[in-house]
Amino acid sequence: MNARESIMAAIRDAKPADVARPDVRSVVARFPQPANLKETFAGSVALAGARFIEGPRSELPRLIAAAYPDWGRRVSVMEASDAADEERSPHSFADTDVFICEATLAVAENGAVWLPLSRLRHRSAVFLATNVIIVVDRACIVADLHEGYASLDVARDGGVFVAGPSKTADIEQALVIGAHGPTSLTIVLVDGAG
Amino acid sequence: MTASRTLPVVEPTVVDHAAAAARFNANPERVTWHDEALWFVREKRDHAMTDVAEWETLRELASSIKEHTLSRLDEYLLMFESAATANGVVVHWARNAEEHNRIVHRILESHGVRKLVKSKSMLTEECGLNPFLEARGIDVVDTDLGERIVQMRREHPSHIVMPAIHLKKEEIAETFAAQLGTEPGVSDPIALVAAARGHLRERFLAAEAALTGVNFAIAETGGIVVCTNEGNADLGIALAPIHIASMGIEKVIPGTAELAVFLRLLARSGTGQRLTVYTSHIHRPREGQELHIVLVDNGRTTQLGRAGFWRSLKCIRCGACMNTCPVYRRSGGHSYGSTVPGPIGSVLTPGIDLEKYASLPFASTLCGSCSAVCPVKIDLDAQLYRWRQIVADAGHVTAKKRHTVRIGATVLAQPRVFAFLGRATRLALRMLPQSIVAAVAAPWSRDRDVPVPAPQSFRAWYKANRISRRPGGEQ
Amino acid sequence: MSTALFVPCFVDQFFPKVAIAALDVLERLGLSVDVPGGAACCGQPPANAGFERFGDAALAQFVRTYARYDTTIILSGSCATHVLSHASSFGADGARVAARAIEFCRFLHDVVGVERVAALRAECAARVAVHIGCHALRGLGLASPSETHVAPFDKVRTLLETVKGMTFAEPSRRDECCGFGGSFSVTEPEMSARMGRDRLRDYRRSGADIIVSTDASCVMHLRGLASRDGRPMPMLHVAEVLASPEAVA
Fold it and tell me: C242 - beta bridge partners?
């Protein structure tokens, strides 16, 4: 008997009496919803230590430039149609100062935004860049993770929820922003077609 | 600088929690500091909880999802394996720690890997993976800041979420000065984290393989979910050509609807955050990358078969029980002598080695705070009580204690004997010199005065002052 | 409706005033209460020490003694929890006892009712720290535990709010364990003493004049520590606060 068969046999022998699968969807459908999604989202983003900016999509470059006047250095902008960076190695983002990308979902209860792999060719950029800016459309805000996962196909679009800049409190519970990942995160909430 | 020497750990044959707690308490101010640090985390958890009106419903839901999943664990693991394999993932099975370590080593060896970065995995700590790999010439760097700190100090983590909670920043500064060349005496956490960031970034970029833990494995999609605040797991996954994910078999959950429930509870319970900074979903290897998942039993199926204890497998490793436990806060994680300490550790470890961990179920007043904070409603205090019976039955309680309890119990079951001895005891307490009383009642009287004996027991008063209307005419 | 009062072993021997007070309170509330002599102990001490079987004789005796009563009032949160959890293993009588046993404060709040307790016109001009034993709190639902997200309630406090002149101190940790824990107090003496002293410090800092508890076992532990440290603090059981002054003189 190999390990797999052995473990399976042990489980069949040991498992407790059947417990029915709870109907998660009907239980969570009864949960209260926040009154104002955008305000709740903005508050959660701030709590997570990220900066929150909003404005029309058409003014995106101006919004960012106004918020970060010192950023004129190397910047990577990822668009679904941008093939220019296909040949880049994941390691090549090690010196990136600012990385901009777009999220397809925003969760009001915790300020997290969803970066699908399909829109994020190089996962490493999100974690190697010193500063990260994530653009998200206002129409993408959902109340909570229940709604979030209901509208995602994570198997097809495996990705990452990002809620704030990287941080640690491992040294005497002192919160330090900027652990191994980015030292800052900015969420830019835009409206208007993307 | 590599951590290529094996951890010089001297494993005790029997863990004596009380003795370890006494050693920890040799420095009362430090105990206060440790207690307050962890109570602070408990308070942050409470604060996060109050924002979620449906908190208790979520807990109940999480508990029943886990119980359902465990009752069909074989089906869900097969579902997971099938979906993951279809995604191009290589799935391995390990009956025990030894098999797990060999599988990981074989994967690394076959690719000539000499440098491994590892993000938090209590399972790999449980399996003793680091010393196993280091003895075979592989450099293992723990990248979770707290784990890295204890690795550099050749210590074990003292908490499953905050591994270095027992250390003061000055102690960490000393370690960094010695091993990273930082300026001695600089203990500002911002400076220390910056030093660690630079040191570990080199390791991420040079890593030949990355090993991560798994917070949740989604059966329906074959994907794994890894939660971090530092981004260290993701840096490993995004950069290294080989990703190995080690998971205990109890980590599997049915689907993403269930995932949402657990994610809403996990960070709030563990640190008071609404969500960890990064929640990564990995379904398939990157182009040109290999992804291996190792499913590990190592005693879990045995625990699954224990009627009074299988519910401990619901654990999602949040650490809330440790933060709330008044004993853990005042004795520190190391006093439990186990990978997973605190209340959950005390119901998992006796199942692994009853004799070694016999004292852990007794390192508790059964106050029930742990059960009340557990996001998946494990009946921790009830399990601690049940383990006590098993420990005593197996003879791992001193003969003296067994004898004393038996005699006491016999007396307590016989009201007349009790009344007589009670009177005699109170008389003795009144007549004997304090020093003798203190000596006889030693463990109690070391810290407390013995209660002032009442001149008359209640029963005696009742007989003297009340007309009894006891049917059947006893006594 | 026959009602009995169970006086725990250590209350009988070391805190008879608590039982005298409880009897006084119940009788003044118009209840006719029996205190049968058949059982000295509920069996919890040996059970918590890992020797359930040794405690069975005591619990069996408890069941035999109280099976005939419609209500058994238990003067201890930890004893009540033990009886409620384990008595049903002792046949039909055991099930009956478990179904009809109730802890003293819960009986006053849930069965007698706060209005009738208020009519006792208890008086105690003091700032009080209320210490609900952990079993009473989390095991018997005497108050909402700080860990859970439920509408707040505190049955003990509600009872004590009927006491004229009583004000309440708020410790920084509302319901942390005092560290007694039965045999824990002697098998983990360091932890037990440290926990108790921390609780005392919190109560002192909150400005409390006296500690009022639902459990004499907690009192035994805290009082012993306080007096050993030369900083005695008056401690009373809820029953003693509600009883007539003559009864507890």
Answer: none
Percent of chain A residues topping a pLDDT of 70: 89
Q: Which residues of B touch A158 (CB under 8 A)?
A: 223, 281-284
Give C60's contacts (C-beta < 8 A, 6+ positions apart). Answer: B413, C90
Do residues B269 and B51 make contact, with C-beta atoms less than 8 angstroms apart? no
- Shortest Cα distance from B434 to chain A (angstroms)? 45
Chain A positions in Cβ-Cβ contact with residue B301 (cut-off 8 Å): 7, 10-11, 13-14
Residue pair B322/B339 in contact (Cβ under 8 Å)? The answer is: no
Using the structure block, give the residue that is written with the tokens 């197996």: B394
pTM for this predicted structure: 0.94
Mean pLDDT for B216-230 is 97
Pairing of strands A159-162, B278-282: antiparallel
The domain locations on chain C are: 3-109, 114-242
C114-242: CATH topology: Rossmann fold (3.40.50)
| R_g over Cα of chain B | 26
- Interface subset of A 11-40, CB within 8 angstroms of B: 11-22, 24-25, 27-28, 31-32
Q: Across chain A, what does the average pLDDT equal? A: 88
Is A42's Cβ below 8 Å from some Cβ in B? no
* B372: its two tokens: 């009340």
Q: Which among B70, B146, B197 is the nearest to A15, CB-wise?
A: B70
Cβ distance C46 to B401 less than 8 Å, yes or no, reads no
d(CA C56, CA C39): 12
List pLDDT tens digits, range A41-53.
Answer: 999 999 999 999 9
Maximum distance among all alpha carbons in chain A?
A: 66
Distance, in Å, from the CA atom of A49 to the CA atom of A163, rounded to the nearest integer, reads 9
**Residue C175, CA distances (Å) to A44, B32, B304, C136 in order:** 30, 18, 33, 11
Q: What fold, for B54-302?
A: Rossmann fold (3.40.50)
pLDDT at B140 over 70: yes
ipTM of the complex: 0.97
Residue pair C117/C242 in contact by the 8 Å Cβ criterion: yes
Fold of A35-191: Rossmann fold (3.40.50)
Tell me which chain B residues have a C-beta less than 8 angstroms from the C-beta of C147: 46, 324, 369, 372-373
Which candidate, A74, A84, A60, places its Cα nearest to that of A134? A60
**Residue B253 to residues B283, B305, B448, Cα–Cα distance (Å):** 15, 19, 50
What is the residue-averaged pLDDT of chain B? Answer: 92
Asked if B21 and C190 touch (Cβ cutoff 8 Å), the reply is: yes
Q: Report the half-sphere exposure of A2 (CA within 13 A, side-chain side).
A: 3
Chains C and A: 3 or more CB pairs within 8 Å of each other? no
How far is A77 from C65, CA to CA, in rounded Å?
Answer: 81
Minimum CA–CA partner of C39 in chain B: B415
Q: Which residues of A32-54 are buried (b: 16+ CB within 10 A; e: fewer)?
A: eeeeebeebbbbbbebbbbbbbe
* A62 min Cα distance to partner chain B (Å): 28
pLDDT higher than threshold 70 for residue A105: yes
Selecting from C37, C49, C192 the residue whose C-beta is nearest the C-beta of B405 gives: C49
Tell whether A119 is within 8 A of chain B (Cβ): no
* Strand A141-142, strand A75-77: pairing: unpaired
Sort out which chain A residues have CB atoms less than 8 A from B235's CB and list them: 124, 127-128, 180-181
Tell me, yes or no, if B13 comes closer than 8 A to chain C by beta carbon: no
Could you say which residues of chain C have pLDDT below 70? none
Q: CB–CB of C242/C120 below 8 Å?
A: yes
Among candidates A22, A48, A176 on the partner chain, residue whose Cβ is nearest the Cβ of B68:
A22
Q: In this structure, what token pair is assigned to residue A113?
A: 């935004």
Q: Where are the domains of chain A?
A: 35-191
